[in-house]
């Protein structure tokens, strides 16, 4: 059993091996389901020249946005600039290379990468700047463009519950990009709210099997909300 135990107790151990110039896949959508503490550890490590693949880049001062403060990120592959003014500024100033990717295509790029599929055809982006420089082909009279899949040196993921073998369950909307990223990292690190004993998770409810996961750490989370709207 000890050989299958993937739990680490420090964030230093969780992100051990991260180096300058690596590609990091990050789960989350906006601020929902983001691996807050793993991002904070990358900030602490001051790793530079990173390529970050994620739906967006958090907000100013939180989430992936904190990695922009010291210019740790050289390239973002994302589908949404979002609420991050620093992201916008660095993009417009030419300090940050941004590869804007349609959201569904970005999701499939990660899924395909995790499945060992090098590329796939999609109709999304045909006839737009997204298609520039890409191969196209007609299927059943409709034009499709070829998109390459994505893998990363690290995948950082936020789960709800996990066991010591690395089997993970996500909670509600926080599932988003997390299970896709989890499959596509050479080293996949999952931080969770709760660690349970092996056998406690219903096998039918597991979203990410432990075979994809290299390290598990238990954390506490702020779970900040981007925009709160309430009625009187």
Summarize the structure.
With 232 residues, this protein is α/β, with parallel strands linked by helices. 18% of the residues lie in helices and 27% in strands. The protein has a single domain (2-117, 150-218), classed as Glutaconate Coenzyme A-transferase, CATH 3.40.1080.
Spatial separation of the terminal alpha carbons: 54 Å
At the fourth level of CATH, the homologous superfamily is Glutaconate Coenzyme A-transferase
* Shape assignment: globular
Give the C-alpha Rg.
18 Å
Count of the domains: 1
Which structural category fits the helices and strands?
alpha/beta
Elements, N to C (H/E): HEHEEHEHEEEEEHEE
Low-confidence stretches: none
The major beta sheet can be summarized as: 8 strands, mixed
Question: How much helix is in the residues?
Answer: 10-25%
CATH class: Alpha Beta
GO molecular function: transferase activity
Protein name: CoA transferase subunit A
InterPro entries: 3-oxoacid_CoA-transf_A (IPR012792), CoA_trans_fam_I (IPR004165), CoA_transf_BS (IPR004163), NagB/RpiA_transferase-like (IPR037171)
Family: Belongs to the 3-oxoacid CoA-transferase subunit A family.
């Amino acid at each position: 059993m000890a050989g299958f135990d993937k739990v680490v107790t420090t964030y230093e151990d969780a992100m051990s091996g991260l180096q300058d110039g690596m590609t990091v896949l990050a789960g989350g959508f906006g601020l929902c389901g983001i691996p807050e503490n793993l991002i904070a550890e990358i900030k602490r490590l001051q790793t530079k020249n990173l390529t970050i693949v994620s739906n967006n880049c958090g907000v100013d001062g939180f989430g992936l946005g904190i990695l922009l403060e010291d210019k740790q990120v050289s390239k973002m592959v994302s589908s949404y600039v979002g609420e991050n003014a620093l992201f916008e500024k660095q993009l417009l100033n030419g300090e940050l290379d941004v590869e804007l990717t349609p959201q569904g295509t970005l999701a499939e790029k990660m899924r395909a990468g995790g499945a060992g599929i090098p590329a796939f055809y999609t109709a999304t982006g045909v006839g737009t700047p997204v298609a520039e420089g890409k191969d196209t082909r007609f299927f059943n009279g409709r034009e499709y463009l070829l998109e390459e899949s994505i893998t990363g040196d690290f995948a950082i993921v936020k789960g709800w519950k996990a066991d010591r073998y690395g089997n993970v369950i996500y909670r509600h909307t926080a599932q988003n990009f997390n299970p896709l990223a989890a499959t596509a990292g050479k080293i996949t690190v999952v931080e969770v709210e709760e660690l349970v004993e092996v056998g406690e998770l219903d096998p039918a409810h597991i979203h990410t099997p432990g075979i994809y996961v290299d390290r598990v750490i238990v954390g506490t989370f702020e779970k900040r909300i981007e925009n709160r709207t309430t009625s009187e």
